[in-house]
């Protein structure tokens, strides 16, 4: 048995020292001040000035971050950097920024140096996920809030253009910069290596650049609350068989006609995420003639990730919903129709519960590992022409491919003696056996209290301290996937300047993208000699309650003898795993949870090898409901006029039209007959759908110079953004659980329906305006208004559906999580931003500056909640603020940053598909800080801190008192040195 400890990984540090991340600034060999002013950003003040310049000079509404912005805060991923921009909201994965939304919507297009980017963690999704993309590879990023016709691939509410460095961006000669860092989290308690390196050279005719980013980090986060996803929540009536209930009045309010919120389980666990991440950016440029320039870029990412989870759970094992006594409850005032007959209305009041006394059937510990290997390659070849005349043009070719492979392993470890669900006398080739001889009897009375700031458990029995009481209950490797994508594009662009006041831009582009997803499980053969098929029955859930009787499915493999059918898993004490047993003691902020023994998740890092070591011969079996292929071919053409004029009020404008012809080829799988022992339904053949649609997307952008320092901008555009590809290609994926109350039958407990090739893409009309006051080079005030009308949108919701159990017989209706096409909705709001350097103040105060913004974005999805109020778009926060206070002197630089976002809707129609019942995430605030000191002009030491207040995220069902679960993230620190040559 082992415990977790702090480890100094010497080998990783050696690797980091030799392959290090490129630094966020680079000073070249000594150049003149005039040259450096154009190409090098050195310091917080200059970074703010660069962002102001980009915004002021743009033809549209845009916000930008520079390399110093990326490096001066502890921005591990580009998402962490982008959250500082007005209107950008991010989601976190293991504490690091991952997915982003712009102005409340996740349908964001991502470009790399102005062309489409294919990321390994967003192969099938539109919303970018940048956990595998190091921020240090970028010179900056522009976020376009309004579209132009020449912006070939634009998102619904915004487009992110990531800008890498190129050799001609740097001074002539040799440029080199490197850094080595150590990172430490107070949850993972491990010292991890990071580093960076950039080397570039150019002589004004030829140039080459290579930058590398490497990190190996261990991140800790914690979960407590409801077990499972929203499908694990219910609302049984008071008429059920509740513990200790004599008169049917379960909550003691004087009647027996309520429905009561119930969870199938309550849990607390820790989750340690290890990310081994490397990124590479290479660029070559050549001025072939004075008019012709060649640019070639390669961008590569490779991430190996392990998400290791371990903890405990108290549950009822899907035997009943009425398995607790509500110690603290209140009436919600909301009425719920409990009738499954559309012609009948049976309204009951929903009762909220925030303290549960559990009649615990199953107390268990568990371990999980999710291994993800993600790689992407993006190549660009561009030839541009500019001889100083009226015509400029370019030809550009893009090639990209990406793959993401996810494989999981799960281990449930029971503490009961098996009598609670009837497995004390399992039958095996050697006779009957109790797989849990040392477990507890009866039903432990455990209290779970959600009323405080954090979940509190009490009454967990002392048997958790006895290693001999733990036995493996189930092992599986399921919900695995292989995703692959290939993309190719070719485009021609040209501009002709007829006069100083009018120019015309035109271009054409053709692109192909092929995407496949294979969902699969690993199944092991059991009892080859005694199985009806001679080779062994294939079993997904290697469990003590899986009896190889065929599950009522005609022709299914069975295994047994005259004494009965065999059980899949026999007695497997946890102690038999020796040094791969650890004791979990850290549950974050969850209270009252004692240490428990678990199988070390790290022992399952290679899931296939782990399962083959216990059950030889595992085979990869396709899950047709989670497998699909989508090909997207697009032909785009645009024409855009650029004009300027005005005597009293100078103006500039671009007006254009973009035509996009989209061809879809969607290959889905028909989900066939049920298969036994947890296996996915059979593949009943392919369904191929071909679709074609055209979009004509006008755009107008006007900028008026009201004075030398004040600009007024107005914009209008139509946008079209593709759906997540799974929303077109996915099929119905049922979920089953074993019901011992029904003789060990595999019963349907829910389903996920993802794909519909007839769904429309996202379309919207966008109206924008902004006024910007450029007080000086380092001070700007801006206010922007936006109004977005979404014509059609896709949202996730649950609907009740009658589905068969695994034996093919329909006995019940369950909640199916599916795509629902809305009627449209509106999103509008205002963005206020200010950047100011206090240069006019005396003394030390002149070294300070601020960068602040506020976004107000109310939205209306067109749906109403259970109380009749308007529901917002999912993932959109009505209020968001960013505030950065910075200091810069000759050698010392420091920043502290605060990010706040108000509550947001997570999912609609929850708890048995109750119309309008919504899961919300509470508001969050994150504080980061950094300080650096220039020891010499070429050598800097720095310290950074992330999530300094140990923020956590709360989720609740509609009412804040009906808490669902809580995620907690660790505080992290980064210390490093940077050299510039």
Automatic annotation (TrEMBL):
Signal peptide as annotated in the record: 1-28
Main subcellular localisation: membrane
Gene3D superfamilies in alphabetical order: TonB-dependent receptor, beta-barrel domain, TonB-dependent receptor, plug domain
One Gene Ontology cellular component: cell outer membrane
Domain TonB-dependent receptor plug: 55-158
Family: Belongs to the TonB-dependent receptor family.
UniProt-listed NCBIfam families: TonB-Xanth-Caul
UniProt-recorded name of the protein: TonB-dependent receptor
